[in-house]
Description:
By secondary structure, this protein is of the alpha/beta class. The protein has a single domain, classed as Metallo-dependent phosphatases (Purple Acid Phosphatase, chain A, domain 2), CATH 3.60.21. The chain has 7 helices and 11 strands. Helix 1 packs parallel to helix 2. The two termini are about 20 Å apart. The relative contact order is 0.18.
Amino acid sequence: xxxxxxxxxxxxxxxxxxxxxxxxxxxxxxxxxxxxxxxxxxxxxxxxxxxxxxxxxxxxxxxxxxxxxxxxxxxxxxxxxxxxxxxxxxxxxxxxxxxxxxxxxxxxxxxxxxxxxxxxxxxxxxxxxxxxxxxxxxxxxxxxxxxxxxxxxxxxxxxxxxxxxxxxxxxxxxxxxxxxxxxxxxxxxxxxxxxxxxxxxxxxxxxxxxxxxxxxxxxxxxxxxxxxxxxxxxxxxxxxxxxx
Length: 244
């Protein structure tokens, strides 16, 4: 039976080697069993350009390349931390880069895939920042800098973001339900799968009497991760741990 796996918010980095090794184990043991793997953003904690080859990027790229060469279709969506990932990285690991949002059909159910940050419309400061850094001119200017300069600038952005989030009410950083309704209505979808908020849960609701559902992916830790599996017999949440 064809299986589609969905993950997000791994935040892989050299500073989190245990999570990196846990992810590589997941690719070898679990992802390779699936027909499709969707990474819905924030695979990396920060991305400063496809020309960055610092540890652990080469090992992760090689693992994903092995996965796709083994027959699993790999899809990648930008997150708020790794939105500068480009076609070079995707080509190196054999992934297809998805737009955000991305409508797909899953076993007869119109489904919308998102990273999730576009849904957090109550956080107006973040949305303004997002528009700024997602502008093509920003990418051109940033990627023209040396790797060291990009690394320092990215570090400064992360520190500013951490300080800003510490002073925000939790509800502001969650999704806005009206935004959810608007996206599902615009794309004619019955199911939404996203990450970003680190609040894994399933949220059923209705729009004009029609049943809808929002599935939220969780963040990864060094010994556990929550995966969503979609097959012909439905949607399942799966806990992947070191004991698996």
